[in-house]
Amino acid sequence: MKLEWFGHVIDGKEVPSASGETFTSIDPYTQQAWAEIPRGDAEDVRRAVLSARTAFDEGRWPRMGFAERGRLIHRFADLIEAHATELAMADTRDMGKPISQSRDNDVPRTAMNFRFFADHARLSTGETLPMDTGHHAFTRFDPAGVVAAVAPWNFPMMLESWKVAPALAWGNTVVLKPAEDTPTSATIMARLAIEAGIPPGVFNVVHGFGPNAAGQALTEHPDVDRITFTGESGTGRVIAAAGARNLVPVSLELGGKGANIVFDDAELDNAVSWSIRAIFTNTGQVCVAGSRLYVHRAIYDEFMRRFVEQATAMVIGDPKDDKTQIGPLASMEHFGKVSQYVAEVEPDGGHVETGGVLDGWRVAPTVVTGLGQNSRHARDEIFGPVVVAIPFDTEDEAVELANDSRYGLNAMLFTENLSRAHRVSSRLNAGSVWVNCFFIRDLRAPFGGSGDSGIGREGGNFSREFFTEPKAVVMQIDQQQPSH
Ligand code: NAD
Asked: pLDDT tens digits, residue range 67-124?
């Protein structure tokens, strides 16, 4: 089969690696290579950072003004929408994401991220700080410079846009390193950015691997002013150390092990259907997945009966088919990891209520019972369609179980009791809490986590803080001598 080519995009041109090296992207459904990608190294990163630095320093983009920059970013979003099928197919072929999710969720959200941050930057206001000393102070938010963005494979274009959009909107230039398993949509986006009229060097893409390769070279590059990373907690530690060496601010969106608490006063149909989505969307490869399911004992049997029934009924198939809800896992390596956890359920004393490992890098929606809070399955981020259900008796116990994790990314709770919803939300150690729903985002709200889930928040003003240098300007109004 002839492979499709997706190059680096450096300084407005689609190019191969300086070394001429390439790698391939494997479609996990066919298990065949479908795309050829340049394998970037330190030299490609050097060229991309130089291009981003030059584009920033010559000043056209950072000084363009919010209205004109916003117009170009909106045109870019228009092109993303016009190329929805191509972009959706790229992510689906790279990582097996069901097409209904890549086309109907990820593409619109990618376009929306660009639109939102363009508008947010344009409409954003600073503070004026009237002083009673004959001075006047106000704040400015100046672009930070060159942004290094390193992305994971689970929501390729969507999470990349989550970084690139605010960085561009605030006048920065960007070098993006997509995950090696999902490179192709980034090249398509960079092609569209050029078509939209975004100047050369403003948005660069360098492909390649992480350690001792493009990812490491980018995060260690001394000419980078911000590092935004989404991925595993272990990688986050390495990247935080690289940022520390260069004294560069780092934003880290890392792993999770979301608690999903279903109280006995929950509206059961709603709780079951959101809980299914919370764990099985994107075949469980979601940082905010509700992978720990805590159900009040009074409703445990009835809830689990309905939950297992719906999990069993999910359509497993070709991710390019509109009806498919569960595709293959993203890679052979990841399939190996997830299937190992499934194989260890029964030896560890648990029970697989439904699901299990299938052929073709597939794992059926898997519901595990009989394992305790201290089991590996309840503690580790499995990052697949595997949920561990544990009953609880009291509200205090539910909160304690939910908070007993090294991750602090997100939690869900289902209750019809308003006081309980407020009380429990305030007690959960989580950057996002969803009450009677899952993964609903307001782009003005903070997103991120604590502990092994990362450092910092992005979204709205939180992204502004990260992607700019906030500045205080103090002006003297009266010509008076300082009194000290
Ligand atoms: P990963 O850490 O293996 O890789 C992420 C990116 O980092 C890739 O582009 C990779 O090439 C690069 N990388 C790896 N080692 C590097 C190094 N030493 N220096 C620089 N770059 C390096 O993560 P993954 O497997 O692609 O993604 C899955 C993980 O991402 C899960 O843990 C998931 O929870 C997390 N995630 C978190 C969020 C969030 O918002 N908190 C969102 C999505 C995914």
From this structure: 999 999 999 999 999 999 999 999 999 999 999 999 999 999 999 999 999 999 999 9
Residues with CB under 6 A from ligand 1: 150-154, 159, 177, 179-180, 209-211, 215-216, 219, 230-232, 235, 238-239, 253-256, 287, 381, 383, 409, 453-454
Give me ligand 1 centre to Cα 233, in Å: 8
User: Residue 205 to residues 50, 108, 154, 174, 404: CA-CA distances in angstroms?
Assistant: 13, 21, 18, 8, 39
Contacting residues for 192 by C-beta, under 8 A, at least 6 apart:
76, 79, 80, 83
Quick check: is 287 catalytic?
Answer: yes
Q: Where are the domains of the chain?
A: 4-254+453-472, 259-435
Q: Cite the DSSP H helix spans in 221-359.
A: 233-246, 268-280, 297-312, 332-343
Cα 151 to ligand 1 centre (Å): 6
Helix (H, G, I), strand (E, B) or coil at 399: helix
Closest residue to atom 9 of ligand 1, CA basis: 179
CATH superfamily of 4-254+453-472: Aldehyde Dehydrogenase; Chain A, domain 1 (3.40.605.10)
Question: Which tens digits make up the pLDDT trace of 140-149?
Answer: 999 999 999 9
Considering the segment(s) 259-435 as one domain, its CATH architecture is 3-Layer(aba) Sandwich (3.40)
Q: Which residue has a Cα nearest atom 35 of ligand 1?
A: 231
pTM: 0.97
